[in-house]
Amino acid sequence: MLQMEGDMVDPGFPVSHTTTTGTTTTTMRVTSNIRFDPSYVNIRNIPGILKCAQLVFNLIGYICAAVSTYNTYSHANWFSFVSMTGFWVTGILLVLYLMHVLERFYMVPWLMLEFGYCALWTFFYLTAASACASWGGVDAAAAAAAFFGYVAMILYGIDAFFKFKAWRNGDLAQGERQVQVADPGMPSPGAY
Questions:
Q1: 130 vs 146: CA distance, rounded Å
Q2: Cβ contact 18:179 at 8 Å
Q3: Distance (Å, rounded) from C-alpha 100 to C-alpha 104?
């Protein structure tokens, strides 16, 4: 718990929260301290690897659009906006996960917010990469930007799928939620 002046404890962020409804008990255990944890980008952690890959393909796609011969045209500007905004938002989310900041604010529906972001960026990359692909026959850098944009689109789509599944299962973005179903004690009678 967070210590304040004197011996007061911050009541705003409980360490655990238990909800009991009927015969189901849900317990959330979150740690409210901010700490660096590099295990998020471990090879076994799919969301961490997806975020790192998204960062790489955002940056490479941006570089391809920036060095394009027609980089002042609207297709390159749209692609640059999509790739750089995706780079910075994904980078900030990666830092928030690495520092366990999301665990501190577990009441925010992070998975739903990230699902919306990833789904929107999947669509944005579809349009931006298609716009660059239409110039691919004239400019090789635009064709390369389109390739990296389509790969980024697939990565964001996969991330959106995983975020949606986790959100539907009632998972937390960070921390753990334990659900225990209590024994009802008396079996239900059969059908009459």
A1: 7
A2: no
A3: 7
Interior/surface letters 144-168, b for 16+ CB within 10 angstroms, e for the rest:
bbbbbbbbbbebbbbbbebbbebbe
Do the Cβ atoms of 176 and 28 come closer than 8 Å? yes
Amino acid, res. 31: T
pLDDT tens, residue by residue, 97-125: 898 888 888 788 888 999 999 999 999 99
Kindly give the interhelix angle for 46-66 and 74-98, rounded to the nearest 10 degrees: 150
pTM: predicted TM-score of the whole model, two decimal places: 0.75
The per-residue pLDDT for range 40-61, each reduced to its tens digit, is: 788 888 899 999 999 999 999 9
| Integer Cα distance of 25 and 23 in angstroms | 7
